[in-house]
Amino acid sequence: MKKILLILILSFINVIYANEFDIKKFSDPNKYGWDTPKTHSMARQNLYNRQKLLQIYELNKQDIIKNIIKSAVAPGWGHYTAKKYTRGHFLLATEIILFGTSYFFYDQAMEKYDKYKKSTYIGDINQYYLDAKDSYVYSQIFFSLGVAVWLYTIYDSISATDEYNHILWNELYMEYHQKGFKITPLGISLRF
188: which strand partners? Predict the structure, then answer.
């Protein structure tokens, strides 16, 4: 019963405050600046051209999620896709150096630990243990730095993709609005 009463009250309020629908005001083309049929036609053509430009952009833009996944799989891959080759090379080289150094120290630690287990002299046992421990700590430090750079690579692929999409839009926009004679490797174009 309360719901029906609420609906009736809202309907009554709507009737009281409702204005008459003005079809002339709704369909007035002058409110958009269409004074003549020519301006109306130009506005339609401009809308069509902008929609076409947006479709070209949507086909060529890069997906941020895909580049994040690429960077997670192989550091720098998302940057290569976004045409940020220098950053991609730097991040990939940094990852290789850090994880390679980590593996080198880990291998040294395991070698010294094996010597520690096989030693019988107390001086050698202490020295091999300390050397193995130091190498293992260095291995963990470089591995942690590698993980930090890997996470940064994933994060930075977002900004690289955003930059690529922004540059793509600007190039498409400038190409669309550029008028005149243009010679390209694909031929000659003339826009009015």
Answer: 183
Cα torsion angle, 71, 76, 80, 84, sign: positive
Name the pTM for this structure: 0.66
Q: CA 128 to CA 112: how far, in whole Å? A: 6
pLDDT digit string (tens) for 12-69? 676 666 666 666 666 666 666 777 778 878 888 888 888 888 898 899 999 999 999 9
More confident of the two residues 27 and 92: 92
The single-letter code of the amino acid at 85 is: Y
SS3 readout for 102-119: HHHHHHHHHHHHHHHHHC
Amino acid, single-letter form, for residue 141? I
Give how far the C-alpha of residue 81 lies from the chain's centroid of Cα atoms, to the nearest Å.
11
Give the residue from 76, 60, 78 showing the smallest Cα distance to 68.
78
Distances (CA, A) of 12 to 4, 9, 15, 21, 182: 12, 5, 5, 18, 66
